[in-house]
Each structure stands twice: as structure tokens, then as C-alpha cells.
Amino acid sequence: MLIRLSVENFRSIKDRVELSLIPGKTQRLENHVFKGTGKNGLDVLKGAIIYGANASGKSNLVKAVLLARNLVKKGTRANQSISVTPFKLNTVSNNSPTRIEFEFRSKGMQLAYGFSITSLHVVEEWLFLIGKGKEEVVFERVFDIDSNKYKTTFGKIKFKNNEEKQFLNFVAKGTRHNQLFLAEVIEREVKENVSGIDSIMNAIYWFDKILTVITPKSRYHGIEAKIQKNQDKSIHYANYLNHFDTGINGIDLVESDFEQFSGQGDRLKQDSIEKIKALKEGENLFINAPDSSRYMICKSDDDDDLKLFKLVTQHRHIDSDQISYFDLNEESDGTQRLMDLIPGFIDAIEGEKVFFIDELDRSLHPVISRTIIDDFFNKNPASKSQLIVTTHEASLLDQDIIRKDEIWFVEKNKDGVSTAYSLEEFKPVRFDTDIQKGYLNGRYGAIPFIRGAQHVADFLNE
């Protein structure tokens, strides 16, 4: 569960911006709030919708989250630079580190994890345990420029013996300059050798299993393996797709000719080919082909044979009960987008996820975008998931479906600097205020500045 996100000196974000999911004073739509428990329990919102003009920087918030997730989950190879871009339009910022921090709950713990990085090295990294009105250090890692070494301090960890402490210090000392300590803990399988690091493992669990980022071009994989193992899942997904009038009657996997697929190697990214070669027994690999088809490659437990399955949709004939299979590239862009979103939404509705979705409305009708938001909040009130999206869809600015403290705006000023602010900052915003009209009229900012007709005429006449 995300509580706060802060980003500083990343792409168009120069100064620190914070996205807070702590509720404001509004009493409407109380089912949109996780109620805190205990004396120091903190209420947290279930979602946020972020608006802004094109190139305002709202997507950069999502990109910062994706960067952090990848650095924790995947790490950085030796001698590889860290793929981070600071604010470039200021000399000081361009030569300063990027800072990203999350405050979140994971397995009952409230944690604050963050880091500051340049393309060359990790400058700082920290994890704090928050509770009962205080913060306790789990670890802090600071780069000393004079010695070209790191000083790592461990706090809230109960080591079973001195050997465990020595081992963790050994891992910290051996962590590369371009690698986060959390990523090193995963890579070295520290959990197998050190007990009492629940706070560290819970932070890793949150980034690995809870936090999910869907960009306009990304695919939410896993649907292939799920429908292979459980046909009921296929029916479940198909019914939800049909809920949006896609005309799809089913989703299936059909076995394909692997030799023919391998012949397309020059059309696939090199890293996909390498992953195919590295597959272990019982593992699956999900691949997006250049033509938008989606495949799952399985390596058998019994032998080294590879099996290739293509994800397809089923459509019933209009004059009989016969079924025809459609490749995904035969479906509309909107249906393909729903194929990316719906498995994730079902996971969110049924379990515990923190979803960041950039451009929710991409290729989707406004009614579908609205239904997705409404379903998320109302299909399963017991869900522990959160949904944070960026969008241009102004029809979602409706206080019947979204709270005013869930509405955020990102605006870029004349210097190219992005700032973020909540609708809660505008006073007063009554429960019956037409927020959509106010937004489109520029009352809340974060809309494009369109030059006058004369400017266009002058341009065309040049």
C-alpha cells in the first residue's frame, strides 16, 4: 500500500514533488479509503487520478516509479551506467543526483525506502521502519567521495549471531557503485543466510510482488500462463472483455510452430533471443512479436524441448456456433489495450496490488475508462489494492465516482519545470462543483496553452 511518493531532479521534475495518498477532509465516497487500525493507524486513499497537458510531466512520475522498481528488481550489470535522466535545463540540476522515495505498507510494516543516484553511482540509499510516531533506521548507505567507498549503517535488525552481521556487512561492502543494496540482497540470496531482516525482505516483496507499472506500450504478462493452468481464468477474462462490448467470446492458447517462429529472429530484440536460450526447465518466457502477437515459450520439466503457444481470441460465427480464432493483431487497438489492462485489474480487484497506469484512456472510449474506475472501487470493497493513473479523460472529473483528494494535476512552467498539486489545494471546492467544466476552463491549470488562430495563419503563410 503506497502512502507517499516523492521525486526530485528527474527529467522535467526539477524540485521535489510529492504525491500523497493521505485523505483530505472530504467525507464523500468513504469506500475509497483504507481505514487505519490501532491508535496510530493512518487512513490511506485507494487511488489517484493525475491530469496534465501533453508534455506536462505527469508521465515522468510514472517513469520514476518504473525506474525504481527496475533498479530494485533487476539491478544493474557491472560496468553499466544507471539509466537515469536528471533535469537538464539547469546546470546545477544536470550535475546533481536524482532522488526518489516511497513510503508504503508491506506485510503489516510501514516503511520508507529511497535513494539518490547519478548515472555513475548510488549516492545514498536508505530504509526506515515507521511506527508509533518515530522512524527507526533499518539501513543507511552513503557514498564518501573522498575515499570512493560506502559507509553502510545497520539499525533495526536482530542478528542471530555475529556471523550473520558479518555476512550482511560483507554483502554491503561488495555492492557495486551502480547497484542498489536491495538489488544486491536479491542477487546474493541474503535471506538464506541472515535472519531478522524482515523489514528488508518486506520492502523487496513490495517492489517485486505488489508494485506494478503499466506504460502505454507495456504488456501485463501472465495471462498466458494463467489460462494454461486454469481454464476458468480464460472464461473469467473473456467475460470481462465481453463486458466492454469487444465481441470476444473466449481467450485461448494455440500451439505454434517454434521453428517458424525462430526464423523471425532478426525481427526480435536480441535480449529476447538470449532469454530463450537461457530458459530453465519448467520456466515460461513471454514475448511480444513485432506484429503485436503475443507468445509464451515453455521449457518442459521432462526434457529440453521448447513449446511455443500463441495467445488468441475466440469469436463465434453469426450463423452458427462455430468458433474462429483471431490473432491479437486482428483486434482493435482498444481491445488490445484492454487485453493489457484487464488481467491486472482482476488481480487488483481480487488481491493486493499498487497499480500505476500511464495513459489509462489510451485507445479507450470514455465510457470504458469510467467503467474501469468504477469497477475498481466498487467490485470488491475488501480489495487491498490501489490504482494511480494518468489520463486526459476529463469526464472522470466527476465527484460521483472520484473524491476531490484523489484528483491531482501536473503543470509545466515556462522554464520547463513540472510541479504537482492536488485539487484539495483549491478552496472552496463544494461537493456539487462541476470539476470537469472548471478544469477545461483553466480554473485548476494543467491544460495546454493554445496559441491563437493568427499564429496558425502566420505559420501556414510562411
UniProtKB/TrEMBL annotation:
UniProt keyword DNA repair present: no
One MF term in the entry's GO annotations: ATP hydrolysis activity
Protein name: ATP-binding protein
Keywords on record: ATP-binding, Nucleotide-binding
Domain annotation ATPase AAA-type core: ranges: 49-398
A Pfam cross-reference name: AAA_21
